Amino acid sequence: MNRKGFSSILILSLLLFSCFSLHAGIVKGKVTDERGSALPYANIYVKNTTYGVAADLNGNYFLELKSGNYTLIFSYIGYQTVEKSITVSDVKPLVLNVALAVSAYATSEVVISPDREDPARKIMQAAREKRPEYFKMIESYTCKTYIKSSLERISKNPQMDSLMKADTVLSEKLKKLQAETGEKKLNLIESISETFYKKPATVREYYLAYHDYTDKEVPMGVNVSAEFSYGPSTIAPDSRYPENDLLLFKDLNSCFFDFYNNLIEYPLICEKPLISPLAYNAGLNYRFRLAGSFYSDDNRLIYQIEVIPLFKTEPLFSGIVFIEDSTFALISVDLTINRAAMKNVREYRIIQNYEKIIDSFYLPVRREMIYTISEGSSYILGNTRITHTDYVINQPFARKFKPNEMKIFAVDAFDKDSSFWNAKRPVTLKDEELSYISRSDSIMRYYSSDEYLDKKDSAYNIFRWWSPLFGFGRSNHYKGYQIFIEGIVSQINPFGIGGYRHRLPVYYNQDFKNGYTLETESYIDYGFRNQDIRGKLGAGLTYLPLRFGRTFLRAGDYYDWINNYASFAQIFSRSNYVRTQKAAVFQRLEIINGLFAELSFTFSKQTPILNMKQDKWSDTIFGEINKPVDFIPYIKSEIRLNILYRFGQKYYIKNNRKVIIGDDYPMLQLVWRKGLPGLFGSEVNFGYFEITGKQYIQFAHRGTLRWEATAGSFYNKKNLRLLEYKYFRGSDAGFFSDPLNSFQLLGPTLLTPNSFFQAAFIHHFEGSLTNRIPLVNWLKIDIAGGAGTLLIPEDNFTHFEMFGGIERIFRIRDLFFRLGLYAVTSDNNLSKADYTFKIGLDFYNPYTKKWSY
Known about the structure:
Blueprint: H1 16-19, E1 25-33, E2 43-46, E3 52-54, E4 60-65, E5 68-75, E6 82-88, E7 94-95, E8 98-100, H2 120-129, H3 131-137, E9 140-155, H4 172-181, E10 186-198, E11 202-213, E12 263-264, E13 274-275, E14 286-295, E15 301-309, E16 317-324, E17 330-337, E18 345-358, E19 361-375, E20 378-393, E21 405-409, H5 418-424, H6 431-447, H7 450-461, H8 467-470, E22 472-476, E23 481-485, H9 488-491, E24 492-493, E25 501-511, E26 517-527, E27 532-544, E28 549-561, H10 568-571, E29 577-592, E30 595-607, H11 617-622, E31 634-646, E32 650-654, E33 657-661, E34 667-675, E35 685-698, E36 704-719, E37 726-728, E38 750-752, E39 756-764, E40 781-792, E41 797-812, E42 815-828, E43 831-845, E44 850-851
Parallel strand pairs: 1-7, 1-8, 11-21, 21-32
Antiparallel strand pairs: 1-4, 2-3, 2-5, 5-6, 9-10, 9-20, 10-11, 12-13, 14-15, 15-16, 16-17, 17-18, 18-19, 19-20, 22-23, 23-25, 24-25, 25-26, 26-27, 27-28, 28-29, 29-30, 30-31, 31-34, 32-33, 34-35, 35-36, 36-39, 37-38, 39-40, 40-41, 41-42, 42-43, 43-44
Helix pairs in contact: 4-6
């Protein structure tokens, strides 16, 4: 939302810090027009200061002031500014509702005569020139930090606010608590921590107290082996911690708003880094206008500079920055992010105030982020308030962190009671927030009670009329186990090997009091045409959760893929299946941070499916490639070592679980396979070594680059069977597959027993070529390009291809898709040059905050 002149003043003065106390007075109310309609994000500030707040989407505001007399200024673009004189007391909150009248005149601006240049440009230039001096002053600092992040859900249709879904598991007592709390409408996190900053942008936190009252929709999961999944496998764990993804600011590492840096990374809402108004290239991205000036209470001249982005679709700010005369220090900001540059946020506003710490150097003492997300039939109103106190500059850190450990939680951080929070909380919470915390504590106590857990078990164990269709289970919280049997819907498999097969999947999990976790997955299935019974059982025991230590056993007699990353045209064809009778054990451990190793031993018998009665429909769909592979059955004993290292992997430990932050680290992976002749009758004798490197690179505002390269070799081929060859993914007609792990014009699936080298890259320009072109930028079309090659010297085979295309991101509810149209050309020494056009579809991972390619 655009703001001009004094209508943009929303942030705290240098006296703000003293306002944050338990005895602060409260002024609250609603800003509306003359007809009573809310004015979202209206400005409320104290006259002749930079102390103020912004109203929320409903026009409601909440302002803290010391006891005394003030003049408040209420403003909104296109409306007349109103001044109100008030007296604030810390005894009782002052409710002040204000209605603004539509302005009969255009918003006034500072007028610059034709022979005078607007001084804003020179002021901002002077502020940018001071950046190196400020950077030299601060090498590191520590401070005390308080963060309160809240979410409120409001219905776009107010009549729907009163509806609340019933839950058969909940008792009447819990339903009453939830109704009183408005649990589905409000979420809140509070924390008190020690912050440790080291130049250029490393922020670590030691949490003294932590309260989390959010809806957590992401289950904790740790997978061990992706051997049976489609696509390239990895031994890296999935260690997500349950979080509410609508909470856009969880800690200081969510986004460290340092406007002295050229770029500000905020991947939760913007794919590209934000460009600071103080960046070296700010003049190429912003226009500046002197909106006004005033003298503070200590007689300092403060300039109000309006920041106007030149490109509405780029990740830029708009609003007001406050610059001190003479020192040209940044003392306050009130900025919003371009809406078109954000993925799923309607409005995002950052209010940040600074205080002089040393030698005319200012550091943040208060930050406030206000944002709105549109989700289905609701709006999500987000608010984060942060205070910093007790700065210690350029001194050794009092606490020691392990390398790349970003957070530490004190042993009792989650156990602080209300008396602690009431004594230590530096801000005043709204009445509804205090009520929410109190009643949420009651809910959490009830959730952990035997009464609730018994009811939850009883509800889970009930056999209902739909249970045979969708599954049923049993759980016992006293013994810590849960068992689940899939229903008929999941048991039907009309496209199995030989035709219809009926399968029965069963899962059993158990948590032990010593922290161990047992997880099992199994199924048995029957094929009616061949009258054959097949099945598989897997069981994993996690016993070192802080090092992802887990032993996994698998055994079965089932139909398995030969190539688990074949083209879509071949993956389900009968030529990609064999009968596997297997017993295997996997052992995985994180040796040091970022270094994972998995050692496995597999004993199996491989048998072709040539003599089976096959279904007719698969011949119709797959044609010639549907013929099963013919080979002599053999027994294999194989040992496999997989080592993966993520460079600079960041993490934290919470509730005795290690949580890895992100996954876009440079990675190196080594794979060694050895076929063991004679062991348990094994008939194979081969050795294989493979090395893979890959990296994700953000080129500031020039887009992102992903590259991946793999080299492999069979150094021993004395008895190497067809199924043990190296397989490459074949190409799909018309579909653009992941270019880092496949080729677009390679033809059918390619395999080799020889050494090879494979490499590819893709670059997404992310609007750097299109966002600055008028009209084109509103189409939100992006450009991407890349290339790949495959070399197999012993087969005298060389393949090269390159591609380029246009892409556009679409959103369906909370899911993001990237649709692309690509032109591909290739050449190799076995066929003539070729070209084609393909359509690609990529998916955005809301947990890793990255696209798959």
